[in-house]
Amino acid sequence: MGLLNFFFGGSKSQPVTQQAPPKRQPQPQAQALSGQKVQNGLDRNGQTFSIDHAITTLNARRAYYDSPHAKGIIDSLTRSVIGTGLRFESTIKFEELGISQEEGQQIGSQIEAVFDRFASSRTASLDRSMDFYQIQALYYLSRKRDGENFNRIHYSNDQALVSPVRLSFIDPTQICGGFTYSGGQYKFDDGIERNVNGEEVRYSVTVYSDVKPFRAKQVKIPAVFPKSKRQVMLHGFKAEYPGQQRGYSAIGHVLQEFQDLQTFAQTSLDKAVSQSGISAYVKPSPDSPASKPFEGVANQPPSGTSATSEELLAVIDGGSVSTDTATQPFTVEVTQVPEAAVTGKGTIIVSNLESGETLEAFPNSPGFEKTSEFVDGQMEIISPSCGVPYEVLKMLWGTSFSASRGTLLQFQEVKEIERDDVASDFLNPVLKAVISEAVADGDLFLPGFSDPKMQAALLSGRWVGSGVPNIDPLKMANSVEKNLGMSLTTVEREAKNLNGSVASSNIAKNKKSFEEMPIPFWSGDERIEDEPIEPEDGEE
How far is CA 123 from the centre of its chain? Predict the structure, then answer.
């Protein structure tokens, strides 16, 4: 084989024949799925959106005050999640601290006492209007209605205060900037400065002058004091996609539905009011016209008086009718019955029917029964989308204990998730600030508190609120008793869940009370001594 054969596979005497490449078979075109099942089946298919936070917040606030359904959802969540306030329960990690469990419980009790002293005082708020447990309720209500919270932590040198820490709210509309893009890759100026890692470092707050109305200025507030590293600002919201910078109202997705419910309910009410008037008339006999029961009672012209339409309106307004012949005269009979006005509630009386005429009333179509069905049908969808079962919102339960109990247990999971969010964004940072100041002032001795790992072990705990409502107290008590027997819960936890009390205090008080009370014969108490039995004859 020569070089030509080696490189080209042939020789001059044997020319290479090139075969035509095979025709490409048509490949089926792959169609990307987007959730749209028919052409133009989805409105705004593939479009991203940006949310104007300022306008959405204002619309949500308007719905909260205008719509009983919107207010009911937010208030129901606030009552269930926060109630009278979440209490801190210390669960110190004594193993990491190298101390005994008894020592850990003692330190934990001290931390709880110091924080409760702060939380129970109205000086917890900068304007002394609320204690910390009341602040929690306002925080959560604002968070669900507005979508986010901005809180400032102030530090005071006033020795008369329970704690140097004091809190205030900053309205989200005061933080300049308006839009959040749903795609995540585009960032709008929202009044918050962030570092390269995306951490919030400074806030631009609009502050209005108390002296000059409508005069405002921008104030820069840091997230953390540079030198002392004290926390200054807290920004809490629930993110719905990566890179989200501001929070969305929990009712933002159903604002239009709330408006539709209000419009439908008001229209049905207006219709019912308009149909509530009783149309009464005097039916004439076959050979004579109807009587005129109101003749001469009110300001009416004599029968057969000629008047123009303008003069007739003057009569209705309390004027008089001219007897002069006017353009386009017609005969009128006017009876003024103010309480029977067509535009308000009352009876409409017709008394000038001619012989043989009858009054045909408008058909009274179904009213509130259909309205109630429509509203219930809509709220059964809207309410769970906001995190509240409709049964909880209505506060009405069926006859099945197990079904109602299941609904409450599912809602309890929602409550725990919401509490964890509030604890992460607000409660835990405030706890850290209060305990840090107490340690710095010497009110609380916590060895190793300056070390971040030791501090986390010392401040470990949970925030306890109300538990599952007792729709059947006896069955609930039996359930708690069995859980205690299997060590699935503690007496302290169950006491707090039931009524917010402290089990150890309850035991001490009950012990004293029981000692002072007569012991009933049916209690089976070992302290009841039976009378000695006399031996029978022949027995020793």
Answer: 27
Whether the predicted pLDDT of 312 surpasses 50: no
DSSP state of 27: P
Instruction: Give the C-alpha separation, 252 to 70, whole Å.
Output: 10
Contact indicator for 472, 100 with CB cutoff of 8 Å: no
pLDDT over threshold 50, residue 15 = no
The letter for the amino acid at 115 is F
Displacement of CA 379 from its chain's centroid (Å): 14
E-only strand ranges, 243-312:
279-281, 306-307
Burial class (CB in 10 A: 0-12, 13-18, 19+), 247: buried
E-state strands within 223-336: 233-237, 279-281, 306-307, 330-331
Q: How far apart are CA 504 and CA 488, in angstroms?
A: 18
pTM for the predicted model, two decimal places: 0.72
Alpha helices per DSSP H over 154-217 = none
Query: Which H or E run includes 150?
Result: strand 148-155
Whole-number Å distance between alpha carbons of 455 and 229 = 15
* Residues 267 and 458 sit within 8 Å (Cβ to Cβ): no
Q: Tokens 């103010």 — which residue? A: 338
Strands (E), 198-245: 200-208, 216-222, 233-237
Q: Which of 265, 257, 255 is nearest to 372 (CA)?
A: 265
Q: Are 255 and 153 in contact (CB under 8 A)?
A: no
For the chain, the distance separating the N- and C-terminal CA atoms, rounded to the nearest angstrom, is 133
What is the spatial distance between Cα 128 and Cα 166, in angstroms, rounded to a whole number?
9
**Rounded average pLDDT over 150-158:** 95
Spatial CA neighbour of 381 closest among 74, 73, 82, 148: 73
List pLDDT tens digits, range 32-52: 667 777 777 777 777 777 778
The model's pLDDT over 470-508, given as tens digits with 9 standing for 90+, comes to: 767 787 788 888 888 888 888 877 877 676 677 877 787
Distance CA 444, CA 455 (A): 13
- Beta-bridged to residue 254, according to DSSP, are none
User: What are the residue boundaries of the structural domains of the chain, listed by start?
Assistant: 50-168+235-251+409-464, 256-275+365-383, 276-350, 472-516
21 pLDDT above the threshold of 90:
no
More confident residue, 22 or 312: 22
Radius of gyration of the chain (CA): 39
Task: Compute the half-sphere exposure of residue 333: CA atoms within 13 Å on the CB side of its CA.
Answer: 15
Give pLDDT tens digits for 218-261.
899 999 999 999 999 999 999 888 878 888 899 999 999 999 98
Whether residue 120 contacts residue 161, with contact meaning beta carbons closer than 8 Å, is answered with no
